[in-house]
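Exercise 7. Given the components listed, write out the predicted structure of the assembled complex. Treat all entries as one system.
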Amino acid sequence: MSLIRRPIEVLREAESRTEAQAQRRSWPISGAEELFRSLYTGFETGQGTSLAVCSAVQGEGKTTMCLGLATAIAQDLPDRRVVIVETDLWRAVLARDFGLPTAPGLVDCLLDRQPLAAALRPTSLDNLSLLVAGSSVPSPQRLLRSARMPEILDTLRRTHDVVIVDTPAALAHSEVGLLARMVEEVVFVVRTGVTPAREIGTAMSRLQGANIRGIVINDARSAVPRAIRRFVRL
Amino acid sequence: MIEKMLEAFFRHWLLILLPVIAIPLDVTAWVLSTPPQYEAQAGVWVERPTYLAYSGDELTRYLPPAMVQRNKLEELMRTRSFISDLVAGTALNAYLTYPGGETQLDQIFARDFDTIQNGDHLLVIRFRAESRDLAMQIVNATVDQFRLRASDDRRAQAQLAISFYQARVTDTEGVLAQARSDQAKYLATNPSIAQTLARQGIEVARLDPQFAELQRRVEAAQHDADGAQGYLQSAQLDVSAGVQSDTVSFKVVDATGASSTPSRQLKKVLVFPIAALVGAVVLSACLLLFFALSDHSVRSLADLAPDTVILGVMPRLRARNLTYAGTHLTRRAVGFVAGSALALRAGDRESP
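Answer.
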């Protein structure tokens, strides 16, 4: 099952969408949809249906990237079912951002307290679901290493077309390597001004065995005025 | 590296430029806030200090007299006794009446007092003060005190030398008297030698070895006594000559004069702000270097390994029309499309 279609197919599909489908909620960030769209069209050659978004340290925009990608795909491809899985059990934010109750979520599914279907939360986009982190537990790393985790991902792959896994920071939690190997493709997020250049290699080495597609530079900005950049040809 | 430096500069431009703006401004304001001063100066013609010949100051032999005297004056200016004597008759004497006043005096002299060597023999003594009278008083007092000190110094050395040579003369005369007494006793106990000495002279009498030895001692003691006497007379002569030469070796050629209007030092008005600017630029450069070198984060594609696959570059996303943002505004704004808790401003919200 292909995650991404060729751009021309995307355009044709967008044209065929009804006005109601196209006009859901507008993005409160100018051009953001185009940016995320350009990102997911970049993955076109990949054949994976599950994608992990990793980064070296916290606060690099993994969750933002997951949300943007999932939303853009769900908006552009209404026939695709997309799910975001929040595996950063140490810093769960999705439930809070969406104003949802914390439980049930991934932790509850891993502990077999709740069925997976009950933990999936609908969003205002019909084809986008969330699997938030869930209840807090004292040792989340054990849950991520359990045999139940790949089972849940397999189940989600069967029920959804696109599974986007929001992982914890690779340098902070070694479980990221396991998670990365459970999915077809890995996107590594690097935030300018935050990610130490030396740590990228270390973080990447922790993902050995995973199919790292490449790096997305997040929050790319230069403090140097454009005229000066042009002048010194930066 | 240029890119990193530029990034660091434009990211911290305010902090980096602050010293360049603030420090010269502060220094200029300080310079302009200090009251203008009167400047008094006197030109003094100096000769090498005419110490006694036997004092032989080898170290300063090849230095110009003005430099020697200037060094001496500057050394004296660092002593409390000289400063106390100097300010005794001036308005600055008030500083000596309370604790900490001496320190303030030291600061005043360090700041406002100058000695300038102008040629080999001309020494210019300069002092700046807010009062014209005070400036002149200090310059006059400096000249007087320095001359007095030099004279006292010379006199003390001379007295020491005279005392030494007087003691030496006494000693040698004692030795001479003893030698003569021993010779006289020997002649008294040996009349034949005394007769020989009387009849045939001292050359024949010297044939007696013991007499010859006593005669040699007498002659040596006489020689020592004559030498010591000569040195004593020379020292006394040097002292009297030195004291009389005071007026020649330290002569005020330009009497103390002061500027008629107060003014600020050119050094303060120009040099201080320029020095402050240079210092501030150096400080800013150090700050820039610090910021550039301490930033180890990824700033551009150049900071990544050459074989890195770049899937995309996301610029900084800015949310619009938000009434409630809270933390992690961007993430919540991105998630808004899928129904996050983020709210839009009334009127901007579109119905789903």
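Discussion: Strands of chain A lie at 50-55, 82-86, 121-122, 128-131, 162-169, 185-191, 212-220. The CA atoms of residues 129 and 226 of chain A lie 41 Å apart.
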